[in-house]
Amino acid sequence: MKRTLAPYDWFLITGVVASNLIYSFLEKEFDPVGSLACIAGVICVVLVAKGSIWNYLFGVINVSLYAWISYKAAIYGDAGLNAFYYFPMQFIGWWQWRKRGASASSKEGGETTVKARRMTLVQRILLFIGCTVLIVGVGFLLKHLNDPQPFKDAATTVLSIIAQALMALAFMEQWVLWITVNAISVVMWCVCVARGEAHAGIMVIMWCFYLLNSINGLRVWLKLSAGK
Hints:
Strand content: under 5%
Shape: globular
Helix content: over 70%
Number of strands: 0
Order of helices and strands: HHHHHHHH
Distance between the termini: 17 Å
Number of domains: 1
Low-confidence stretches: none
């Protein structure tokens, strides 16, 4: 089945491009690394919400740059997450989505989307318990390592790892975790803005658009996974 971008998808893409231009104008300085990471990231998550396998191409660009930006801002959990987990998961995800029916083109000449599915009630309960335990444990570890925002960093790191795995396996529940991750990340990068970290302002813009997309992604994937 061929799927095209909806008006809301174009709103997110054009909105993030415009926001980057406005931000650069106000700051009187263009940040090519931050802007490219931001725009590639938003295009990536928009395509994830559409069930398009092409999201992984833009994902490679985004996670590579974001790992470097996070490292410079001393957000070590996010830096390691993107460099050592998200990056290889782009290729694993592409392979898994191909197995679940997604492809860049079909015999009819259009792109086919991934076959989405849902977790059982027991799986959701275990998911919640596992996430909570891991966030607390990783938070204390990062606090010991002098992470400036240990529990926020732990939450985004742990939930992102699990959400990325659920994404590769095409589970709808990934979007609940992404919404949580994105909301926390907005707050975390706002703190970085207050600290004067490089690229932080553009990262706030990126995560705000991520949050908007994740809400829409949940709506779309509830339909994609209906009855599955």
